[in-house]
Amino acid sequence: MDHLAHVSNQPNSQPQSQISHLALDIGGSLIKLVYFCRYDDNCRDDDELRSQNESLGSESDNSRPVLGGKLHFAKFETSKINDCLEFIHSMKLHLGGFHDCTAPSSDKIFIKATGGGAYKFADLFKEKLGVSLDKEDEMECLVTGANFLLKAVHQEAFTYLDGQKEFAQIDPNDLYPYLLVNIGSGVSMIKVDGDGKFERVSGTSLGGGTFWGLGRLLTKCKNFDELLELSHQGNNRVIDMLVGDIYGGTDYAKIGLSATTIASSFGKAISDNKGLVDYKPEDISRSLLRMISNNIGQISYLNALRFGLKRIFFAGFFIRGHAYTMDTISVAVNFWSKGEAEAMFLRHEGFLGALGAFMSYEKQCLDGLTVNKIPQRFPISVSSAGNKIYCSMNGKSNDNESIECTV
Amino acid sequence: MDHLAHVSNQPNSQPQSQISHLALDIGGSLIKLVYFCRYDDNCRDDDELRSQNESLGSESDNSRPVLGGKLHFAKFETSKINDCLEFIHSMKLHLGGFHDCTAPSSDKIFIKATGGGAYKFADLFKEKLGVSLDKEDEMECLVTGANFLLKAVHQEAFTYLDGQKEFAQIDPNDLYPYLLVNIGSGVSMIKVDGDGKFERVSGTSLGGGTFWGLGRLLTKCKNFDELLELSHQGNNRVIDMLVGDIYGGTDYAKIGLSATTIASSFGKAISDNKGLVDYKPEDISRSLLRMISNNIGQISYLNALRFGLKRIFFAGFFIRGHAYTMDTISVAVNFWSKGEAEAMFLRHEGFLGALGAFMSYEKQCLDGLTVNKIPQRFPISVSSAGNKIYCSMNGKSNDNESIECTV
């Protein structure tokens, strides 16, 4: 059990020979990168691998070597794609693709990519890095990534209520069906029934791009994280019209609305003789975050209800492990379901699509794969072949930054 | 069939003796008034009334005279409640309430009122006008008002698609159940199963107050109507991130998203190097209107689906007969239901709650009712007693402004 795939978002400067596959998820706001670096050339021999796989009930083809190494995660703003291209180039990550096995003599390199940007920026990648983007379906990648994390990573999913994070025990044999809510610039809601069995059942255009976009227009914030940070100090009651504001401080108890329930997001901005400059960015950010998180929670619950799904997993880079965001979504799901449903979150929420694209390398004919004598199979990818993988957190709880996986 | 209740929002200066009941719906943003003025003292005699009621299958108590007259509608911004109080005072409308029949010697006047402001502003009405507000439940009034309009008023409900208004034939015997979506500052969604049989099943804080509040902060608009008007000239694609923006101009056809589908409302505001001043108020208004209307349409549909309701009626002062608002809501319901459900609108959308409060006068013991020899029963109120009333439009189609009712 000592083969390790170490996941990190702290890229080190890697010598070229150690860089393996690169996969991209190019969304409307962010580009997410996953790439694999070997620890060294310590490929295990077949016997050792076989014995280990058997102990895990693996059905994989054991004739190939297994590599130990680290999975690195990185992200860039899509609007700064040139920074991303430069990063890839400087790290020589673009060599970590695969060759077209139907044309063995070709030296054309393909990089797995998903998200709309895989289409939009294909020419740019060709021009700047000389690589072709091999496009993988966005929803498929999200689901593959989610299934991997939920099945393979110990303490991946958790609930969040009243400031308390509680890890959920997910039985991999009792995972399906569930609702996956991926909150990127926009929001996709996907009913997942099994490996590769899913349907995008709903979504909403009020997502991370709305929070950031409206937030930028309403405040002087320069980036998403700054805006999110501001919300910590804010008070949504300054701008939101509460039930108590309409009812003179009392509840509307008959229909279960307390005085502090938000009746109208940003509704107080209508009756005050105030302009934008009179409101604190902190309060604006808080109201905005609450409006969007609550709305996503509500629509998610209604869709879970519609299909009889007990579990709702929220992912995507909008969340960023942010306490108030998770709390609002949790409260919304709890409120609208009258306590029947529960929101769950993923520790590695932001890289589902990129992980899914990364795993799709396995679908390729692997003979032409290696660029720099990179082994054709590596531990973390085994999951997508349906094998059992068990991962445990690597000591400290640093969320996105590090998973220690043993296969 | 010549007893007329004429509904108008063009209040005339009425001599005091002709003013009858006043009812109020005091919401977070707007105060809606309904008051009745007699044409003259032409009360019908009992025989005439009886014969007419019988021909309509009425079961009402025919011993009381019936009055012909006009129902007037008016509205004020809640933030300008003093204007409203002044209007009521100058028109002597505050005398159009009822006396407490359990204390015949008292000269205390009660005015029927609903909405949160009936609680919040009760003391103010007492202080300024010397009247007590007799509070009626908000949801009950909305439902009573909607049922009256849907049953009694010919060509009240209509669909709106591709700029085409089409009146719906509603069979009063096949009205229930339906979903009533009232879009005020916030949004209430009410499942209506019959006269007085209803449940508030959902709602959203993204309503008219959000449109107006955010709109005020983002533009220089001085009022709701100006903001709504601006949206006519706007183009939401300037600020909204479309699927095509992410996918480089192409559709995401696999999951049924066209290139022009909004992926992220206000999502383009993140990637541009633009601030608020660089966006046209027209475009902001359009994006805002579309975001909120689409969201309401989506959540409404999900709730209709949940309870198996075929008809969704949208009302509330947010709509204001505005073509683009209705079009967006209709498209949203059509999109999310894949053509299975249809949005319907009400011509007299803004006064449901006030009408419901008005009708609740009938619940009072009527002996102490008259202030100025006002008859204790008038045509339009008969509906709330379950009698059949047929209304027809008064010639020209001027929507909120005029209904001619014959009972």
Biggest sheet overview of chain A = 9 strands, mixed
Which sequence of SSEs, written as H and E, runs from N to C of chain A?
A: EEEHEHEEHHEHEEEEEHHEHEHHEHEHEE
Rounded to the nearest angstrom, the distance between the terminal CA atoms of chain A is 6 Å
Oligomer: homodimer
The structure class of chain A reads: alpha/beta
Instruction: Report mean pLDDT of chain A, rounded to a whole number.
Output: 78
| Beta-strand segment tally of chain A | 18
Number of separate helices of chain A: 12
Overall 3D shape of chain A: globular
Low-pLDDT stretches of chain A: 1-17, 41-66, 365-407
Helix proportion of chain A: 25-40%
Based on CA atoms alone, the radius of gyration of chain A comes out at: 23 Å
Q: What proportion strand of chain A?
A: 15-25%
Which pair of protein chains has the largest interface, and what are the residue counts? Answer: A-B, 72 and 73 residues
Question: What does the model show?
Answer:
- 2 copies of one chain form a homodimer.
- In chain A, helix 11 links the parallel strand 15 (311-315) and strand 16 (342-346).
- Chain A has helices spanning 46-55, 81-90, 117-120, 122-129, 138-152, 208-218, 224-232, 243-246, 268-271, 281-306, 323-336, 352-359; strands at residues 4-8, 19-26, 30-38, 69-77, 98-99, 109-114, 131-135, 157-161, 164-167, 178-183, 187-194, 197-204, 241-242, 262-264, 311-315, 342-346, 390-393, 403-406.
- Chain A is 30% helix and 24% strand.
- In chain A, strands 1, 2, 3, 4, 5, 6, 7, 17 and 18 form a 9-stranded mixed sheet that branches. In chain A, strands 9-8-16-15-10-11-12 form a 7-stranded mixed sheet, with helices on both faces.
- In chain A, helix 5 crosses helix 12 (352-359) and helix 7 crosses helix 10 (281-306).
- Chain A has 12 helices and 18 strands.
- The first copy, chain A, has 407 residues and is an alpha/beta fold.
- Chain A is globular and about 80 Å long.
- Chains A and B meet through helix 3, strand 12, helix 6, helix 8 and strand 14 of A and helix 3, strand 12, helix 6, helix 8 and strand 14 of B.
